Amino acid sequence: MTARTWIREHLLTAEAIYGLILYSALIAGVSHDDSNAVEVLLISVASLLIFWGAHIFAQTLAAHGAEKKLSVAIGHALADSSGMLYASLLPSVPLILGAFSLMRTDDAVTLSLLIAMLVLGALGYNALGERGKHPVLRVLGAIGTAFFGFLVIVLNTAVH
Length: 160
Hints:
The protein is mostly helical and 160 residues long. The protein has one domain (3-159). Helices cover 82% and strands 0% of the residues. It is built from seven helices and no strands. The protein has helices at residues 3-10, 14-30, 37-63, 70-86, 89-99, 105-130, 135-159. The longest helix is centred in the first third of the chain and has 27 residues, at 37-63. It starts with a helix and ends with a helix.
């Protein structure tokens, strides 16, 4: 399997994009002036795992029936939802560095959110590239994709 194929199958999925936006919103919602990187990381990861578990449960319940065994439904749900967890890896790196006092917490949070927006932008660029769109449209799509993710994070933070 090539790197492009792996990315297509694991990171260019609705689950991965949802996971990235959700994880970013969790980071933004958890962080505040007196939080530390360990707290932000642990609460965000724990919350993402809870949402991931709910996603697996929902997919399993929806797919399980007379024609699909429970074990098969769970296996498909685990495979389909894995992108939710993969998407959190890059934004976690600055928080891990912050947890080891290699970065200030506010810098780690800011960098985590910036990485998430850049990944969303790259996904938007790639999606339009696969459709053979002109590079200018790809760049505009990348900006739009990153901006939409930014809006969701801002709205989530405002609500919570």
